[in-house]
Amino acid sequence: MKALKYILASAVCMLVSTACSGSKKNEANVNEPVQEEAQTNAVTTDGKTLVVFFSHAGDNYSVGDIKVGNTKIVADYISELTGADQFEIKTNKYDGMAYKPLCDLAKKEQANGELPAFEGGIDIDAYETIFIGGPVWWGTYPQVMFTFFSKYDLNGKTLIPFTTHEGSGLGNCVKDVKKAYPKANVTGEFSMYGHDVRSGKATVEKWLKGLGYGK
Ligand SMILES: Cc1cc2nc3c(=O)[nH]c(=O)nc-3n(C[C@H](O)[C@H](O)[C@H](O)COP(=O)(O)O)c2cc1C
Questions:
Q1: Mutate which of 26, 136, 204 for ligand 1 pocket (most atoms within 8 A of beta carbon)
Q2: Which domains does the chain have, with CATH numbers?
Q3: Considering only CA atoms, which of 160, 59, 50 is closest in space to residue 105?
């Protein structure tokens, strides 16, 4: 199963890469094989909860030029349905970039292990359960999220990774969160196609109910 997922993720990266390289853009449903992934392991829902996320508004694959990023829409559903606070990992580094140059830049950042700066900060000690969300960029979270991981110690907390994507599902995100925080309880992960989020509130709600929220 893991091998199959890896092959699918790689295939998607190639599709995204083909789109990035300016060849004929693939239609959204070419990525059909990866279904929504949701773990329904119940979590303790009574501590203070935070959603930490990064999301890129602007020109993107499949959805075009969007005013609100796909992952932000999911983060907003989570806050609305659970009462969780939010910390948005924000950088102006990618503002106004077209999709292809952004793909090239993100690939370079990942290859070089760059850690782009983000704005502001958060009192993380106040939170016991943290949803961690972002788009999949080249198979895992964008590098700016790794900047966040390098600055905040989330060991000992319950961490719930989620992604939006166009075929990679969770990609390597869960593995990378576990690697960043080996002593955290990483559980309950969820992924959703970016082009589905605007009509996908019920799907998010079902996932959250499976975790024990809103019962
Ligand atoms: C730089 C870049 C790289 C991407 N790489 C992948 C990828 O490897 N796999 C995938 O399924 N989707 C990939 N995508 C698509 C995004 O994951 C998807 O559109 C996501 O929903 C965007 O979320 P956002 O609007 O919150 O940023 C990529 C998009 C960009 C801009």
A1: 136
A2: 2-211 (3.40.50.360)
A3: 59
What is the CA(44)–ligand 1 centre distance, in A? 30
Nearest to 174 by CA among 165, 163, 183: 163
101 token code pair: 């140059």
Structure tokens at 115: 């850690």
β-strands 37-38, 190-193 pairing: antiparallel
Q: Residue 145, exposed/middle/buried by CB under 10 A (0-12, 13-18, 19+)?
A: buried
Under DSSP, the state recorded for 166 is: S
Question: How many residues can be counted in the chain?
Answer: 215
Tokens representing 143 are: 């590098």
Run of H or E including 30: none
Q: Distance (Å, rounded) from C-alpha 109 to C-alpha 71?
A: 20
| pLDDT tens-digit readout, 39-95 | 767 777 667 999 999 999 988 888 888 889 999 999 999 999 999 999 999 999 999
